[in-house]
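Researcher: Here's a chain I'd like modeled. Treat it as a single chain, no partners, no ligands.
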Amino acid sequence: MELTGERRALRDAVRAAARRNPPELSPPATGPGYDPDLWRLLSEIGVAGLAVPERYGGAGAGPVEVNVVAEELGRLLAPTPLIGSAVLATQAILAADDTDACERLLPEMTSGRLIAALAWTGPDGGWDPAAAAFHAAARTGGGWTLTGAAHYVLDGDSAQVLVAAAAMPAGGLGLFEVDPGRAGVDRQAAAGMDQTRRLAVVRLATAADRPLGPETRARDGVDASASGMTAALARARDLASVALSAEQAGAAARALELTVGYTSGRVQFGRPIASFQVIQHRLAEMHVLVESARALSYRAAEVADAAVRDGAAGAAAELPMLAAAAKAYCSEALATVAGEMIQLHGAIGITWEHDAHRYFKRAHGSAQLFGPPSAHLARIAAAVLDS
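Model: Modeled as a single isolated chain. Structure tokens:
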């Protein structure tokens, strides 16, 4: 996809911020899992609020602009709250259709001062909005009490606000805002393969601060599916999957660049190994994967843009399938390119002195986020069979 002048300027601004404050690829275990200074710089150029409407203090941009940023940060393996807070949690809050919550939370999130985390999936990592949430909501007096545990929560151990998906008493799902400082909230960072992406387990046995969504509040939990919370989570997951696919495409592109550079300088039998035909074929196949992954990711973003900003009904119907396709294909593309990167670098590719192993770990960690490729392929198959 050819970027417009404004989108190139956005990409260049992200690059400049990263040069000014290079991302730490081995964040300390006791910190937030990302560099607050880098996130502050990115927030100053509007990254944290790209997907937030202008009436809530955001840039009013769309999924394509989010893709531009995610692709660039993916190239750097930059640990940031972009996917977890600025996309996933933001979209869940917006889709809940709660004006009060949007006015209260989104301006602070847009400024970069507030990080939000969406907690909703179980230990199997199944990000299926139709499945029961791993928190349960029960009426207690004039409020709600949430119990249960959510896994793989992006930035869940450091976020200043939690948005918890919970199974409602009468069926369906509800979204609840929870202060992580409350008694009964236990957050623990989870050991993961990818050190550049912090995940956490969030266990709740506490009162919720407030339910999100006007109908959830008004109906006292009468079949929360009627309030659209299941659809809200599905939309948030799909938009996050599109952004993640751009991140994966960016990481794959950088992995290819590093591999081309290494094989062009590595001499064997008196020649750079990149001059051998078998190496050239492998690099060409990597290039095809990178370019096709990027093309599919941006196609999904264009459809998402039409669905979100323009409200196009056709695009809204097409988005779930394209989001699933982008997530599945880009996951496989990055895994393949990162594996080839390790192979073509030889022994140095598995040492701490080189970043090849980090791209490999990012590939396999991100492939499972929001559901493995097999789950998204199953979504596509089901949609085709139903059509």
